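Let us practice reading a record.
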Amino acid sequence: MWLEAVILLILVVTIALIHFYRKRKVDLTAIISIYVLGFVLIFTIGLSWLSLLVAFFILGNLVTKYGYSVKKDRSINEKVRTISNVWGNGGAALIYAIVYALSGNGLLLIGYLGAVAAATADTFSTEMGQVHSRFPKLIINPWKKVVAGTSGGVSGSGLLASLFGAVVISMIPLFFNMNPLLVLVGTLAGFIGCNIDSLLGATFEAKYRWFNKHVVNLTASFLAGIAAILLGILLGF
């Protein structure tokens, strides 16, 4: 049964990746990275938890189609996703998965959930929010308007989109009969992580060239994982 599930998951992921590759949404480095990340996660946290990251990568590519013509006209449409996108969005989740495999501490799985929820929330916020808000506000200076796509720019539509993304990804554990409170933990941690991402974008990314958006994504999702663990402790996990 386990082997059949693995084969089915690989088949689904392969079909999706072929589609996205043909549509020039991902390149070969991204595809290889996704397979490497996936196989490591299978043997560290199992299929049920891996499904969160699989869902994120599929949803993340699909949501780029939202208002694509508008984003293209404004030159803010997402370019081809590469190895940097994969590890920027999935690197923190991998860290939590490996530490869980080494320690056996279940709180690390909650950290994993928070990291994936943050990556999803940020992707939804970016891809959907900038369609509805041409001039968002800078998160560290709410009175200052910036051009859509500017690091650290936030809007009401973007915040709602981030919340929606966090809720969607955090509901997946319910399909595996996990604790329903994980939906609350994942949603809050994802929303927190998305805003941390904006703060880092408006500060460090804006000042240091090496602190690019991929480093921002990795850092924010890792911190979201910590937030999820703290929330899990408060809720008695």
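A brief commentary: The chain has one domain: 2-234.
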